[in-house]
Amino acid sequence: MDSTAEDWRKGQQSRPRIHCIYPADSHIGIPERQLLTFDEIIVPVPEHGYPDFVYLKSGTKYLRVAKYNPWVFQKLRVEAGISDEIEAAVPRTLF
Length: 95
What we know:
Blueprint: H1 5-13, E1 17-29, E2 35-44, E3 54-58, E4 61-65, H2 70-79
Antiparallel strand pairs: 1-2, 2-3, 3-4
């Protein structure tokens, strides 16, 4: 889903958040959807539950996705030092 520079800025201001920079033109394939190209992502980390969106940026193009693997989200929280452990009941899915 298309997004805006303003959505990206709001994601940058969220605390805590996970912000990752990738090599230019990195790709992610979502089953039954288009190939997404990006070079940065922002994942706002809410106090409870899961973020509504994960934001992707490629140059001056902004996207947001709402479908993502909850297990990967929990793993990123641990790696970023935002959480001590992955919740026991987090489902693992393909995307």
